[in-house]
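Q: Got a minute? One more chain.
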Amino acid sequence: MHSVTRKAMEWLAAAATDPRACKRQLHGGTGVAVLACGRFWDVLSVPEELGMSALDALLRIPKPPGPALADTAARRVAFFLPPDSDGRWIGSGIRYAGRGSWIAVPAPHRAEGRLRWLVPPDGTGALFVPAAVELGVQVALGNMAAQAGTRRRCPTCATSIPGSTLRNNGRTH
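A: Always. Here it is, folded:
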């Protein structure tokens, strides 16, 4: 096992109530362990499209990234942030896991399955900076809005229509 992978495994296991059992789970059949949030990290989970776009923006920042995890079945991306007992993230589809919450994580070297690391932990404890993630999400939302162009949905029937023909009352399209 590479040194970075070993350090990452130790870092993940340190968050477990039983580090040895955690290592066995990560090395075992499913290669997944359930770990508590709020001690070493909190987790911000966002819808996949938003998360992938935000991660793309975050990876352009010269600061090293923190771990980012994809749940392909739930179609979500999770960013590991420093613990913040007052952490408040509000938005459609946004989930914040702090103290009292748990997250399933795969082994750092695992590249298959429902859970996979987009940016694996490096074992140093590096985490995303919350302000950078907020900016990344804002950039992603702007990019998604630009890609959507002027297409909108009729509030009455949900039909996709050109924005220029949508009237204020939502009935003409």
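A: The radius of gyration is 19 Å.
Q: Perfect, thanks.
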